[in-house]
Design a protein that fits this description.
The complex is a heterotrimer of chains A (329), B (283) and C (332).
Chain A lengths: L9 E11 L4 E12 L4 E5 L6 H8 L8 E8 L2 E2 L5 H7 L4 E4 L3 H4 L6 H12 L4 H14 L5 H4 L9 H13 L5 E5 L7 H18 L2 E6 L2 H7 L2 E6 L2 E7 H6 L4 H9 L48 E4 L2 E3 L4 H6 L1
Chain B lengths: L2 H11 L7 H18 L1 H4 L31 H37 L1 H16 L2 H12 L3 H28 L2 H8 L4 H13 L1 H24 L10 H8 L8 H31 L1
Chain C lengths: L7 E11 L4 H6 L5 E12 L4 E5 L6 H8 L7 E6 L2 E2 L5 H10 E4 L13 H11 L6 H13 L16 H13 L5 E5 L7 H18 L2 E6 L2 H7 L2 E6 L2 E7 H6 L4 H9 L39 H5 L5 E4 L2 E3 L10
Parallel strand pairs in C: 3-8, 3-9, 6-7, 7-8
Antiparallel strand pairs in C: 1-2, 1-4, 4-5, 9-10, 10-12, 11-12
Helix pairs in contact in C: 4-5
Classes of the chains: A alpha/beta (329), B mainly alpha (283), C alpha/beta (332).
Chain lengths: 329, 283, 332
Amino acid sequence: MSGDAGDALLSVRNLRVAFGSPQHPLLAVDGVDFDVAPGEVLGIAGESGSGKSVTLRSILRLIHPPGRVSGRVLWRGRDLLTLPEEELRRVRGGEIGVIFQEPMTALNPVLTVGLQIRENLKEHTGLDAAGRRKRAIELMDHVGIPAAQSRLEDYPHQFSGGMRQRAMIAIALASNPQLLLADEPTTALDVTIQDQILKLILRLRSEMNMSVILVTHDLGVIAQTCDRLAVMYAGRLAETGPVAALFRQPRHAYTLGLLNSVPRAGQIRQPLASIPGQPPLLSKLPEGCAFAPRCPFVLSACREAPPPLVEVAPDHRSACLAHQALAKA
Amino acid sequence: MSLTLTSGIAAAFGNGRRRHMPLLVGSAIMALFLLFSLIPGIFAPYDPLAFDYMHLSEAPTLAHPFGTDNFGRDMLSRVIWASRVDIQIAIFCTIFPLAFGTIVGALTGFYGGWLDAVFGRLVDLVVTFPFLVIVIAIVAVLGPGLFNMYIAVSSVGWVFYAQLMRAGVQVQKQSDYAAAARVLGYGEARIIFRHLLPNAITPIIVYWMTDMALAILLGSSLGYLGLGAQPPTAEWGVIIADGKNFMSTAWWISVFPGIAIIFAGVGFSLVGDGIADIFRRRN
Amino acid sequence: MDAAAPLIDVTDLAMSFHRPRSVLDRLTGRPGRIVHALNGVSFTVMRGETLGVVGESGCGKSTLARCLVRLHQPEAGHIAYGGIDVLRLTGAERRAYHRRVQMVFQDPYSSLNPRMTVRQTLAEAIAFHDLRAGAEIGRRVEELLDLVRLPSDAAGRYPHEFSGGQRQRIGIARALAVEPECLIADELVSALDVSVQAQIVNLLLELQGRLGLTILFIAHDLRLVRHISHRVAVMYLGAIVELAETETLFTRPAHPYTAALLKAAPEMDPGRRSVIDAVRGELPSPLAIPAGCPFHPRCPYVMARCRAERPVLADREPGHIAACHLEPGHKL
């Protein structure tokens, strides 16, 4: 997954996010590496406590103290983690856009949607007032908000859930970003609306040659939208690689367990192959692999030290000592 | 209080990271005054009523740390013995409003409807007038004295507890565990008092602490005005009133009971704040 | 009792919520707004079966669940349970009904009383319905914990000490404490992680086998519903639009909305992707239900008749009903 950092748009290296006291740190993210190529949709999947959202937010330095972020986030050659505030502001919302899970809390409820789009345009483009207004209408139209002109002066609460999410996308796109960070953008939406929003994001990706990092817990969403996938567990990367490969032949016991937890057609009323137990508390991580206590393929070596992320196939990496056994399964 | 709160409070007293100094200090102060009110004889060096013509209006000395008044009575002993009355005021001015207000608030919050409408108008009425004014008015009608003061304060003070409980119950009523209780077939009384009330009680406890501090202030204010405790009962406000004519010559007569009032008030407030803090932290 | 008679028989259930009128409404003489949550819902559930109910926001599935356990009193319609008219029950008879039909809730974080230990919660239910007495209660509590696969030391602990999945188990134990015949699971696993969902679903299947429960499984996750249900009902804006045996519904849907739902649900196969939206338009609000067929503004097969006339649920084939004006056999 991390090839030559030179051709990637975004390169994350050894990202670490710690909470709690320096003597007893809780590592919400522990040594995460990945790249995003231009025009690629990377999915980050995991359950609660996996660190996927924290990873996303730390890219744009949205993690506040007491969280401590270390590592490197290389965006077009510059390390975002050490960039001066002023330059970071130009990147945030400008070159890199963000959309969140809850549009109602992510949008400013006392400002009209039109104003919020125009604000972004003002900050990141050189358009004059008339130009901004025109562009705002274009954007709202583009994301599928009907009667865009008349809705410019509406407030977020006057939009339905799906429309609010579209509005958030319009704001994020105003500056023509090259990368869109999406933190569970459709989790709070109904299935038919989720379908519309995901397809919209994919369309925009093609039209604007934009990359997307999509954080979600829904493997179906990953299957339908992402090119590559990074699976996280307890703050570490479990497996990364092309989506088709991971779904066809997972090479980490956790990925396998996760895929098996989802019911497939034709198995009516049979017990699902569930993973026993629950994810560990970050304060009580085991010595070795974090997944070892729940793993049906566990080896004694797994409990000694966290397995390193190794390449198991071209562009496909896994941090699982049993990856060979899984390949044969 | 929920387990989270009790264990939080226990931790606050411990030596660990979660020690809460203000709560510790406040509790120490409260405990001190409680002891004074229960066993004043142990702490007071002299009989508070004993006149000592050899030491009239003496400034504070080692023998009389708070000085003596114009009758030679030891001020320290008087202030300590007065704790009994003022703590009693703190309790009796608040316990009835707490009980009655909690019940009315719980019922109003649960049932709403006309009960809530009537309650709302009552609240409007009470809130319109300054609390002290109403209390003085009632005492003026009933006559001065501690017992009438309790009646006056209680008849108005319950409203604030009721408001808090009403809000709390309305919130708890929306929760799924309340729905589950209904689906299990439990009767309304059980749901209100065994399920909703205990989950809404914490703000009431916090308010009670600060209310006790206010009650002491109120009691001593009325005592000072001659409408509360009546002489010769030693009550901090009454003692202050006794000394008001000697402010320039024997300032210690009025000042030390005043300090006692502040101290006690601060103690209760710190405890209230501490509990609120822990509750907030846990949530 | 006739073995072929349904356990639950719901007829024409209707329920609305009246929103309080704002000051502006009163001044302008506008009538208060009404949320039509249920608009004539009819279906049956046989003893021992699992009926899945799916639908999106505003479809009324939660309101339906709450009417069945008498949390809401519907404005019209009938609910018969074991032949008894449920909506008229009061007092002891009503309590007896609550023993027979129980509910498990969606949110593991608010469905348990935070101030009661697990033992207190379970014991209260057992004692209230006089199911056991004295020392027997403690034993029964342990049995229940065992049934839901929780360790026996869980009894003395408070809800906040458990994870989401464990809390749902406690919720199930509470429901089972009164020895019900029927369990209504309102989005039981929606708030849980995927791997935990699988555990709870397995538990539910096992309990149904052991205890012979009838289950109403309400969810928005189609895959789960397909996995666990014998029959599935699809709801839209307060009405059932299709009801059929699971596989029939999923492979040969008769209603365009069902077809759209199936297309919209993201498939687990990365090789099969579509760029076309499964269905156009927004979800209408139950405050303003479209005239005629409620789905007509979004339906790709809409005809003039659909805008004017509301379709009724009719047989497509035995055991398969749908409310649509399209001729049966029309491939969706």
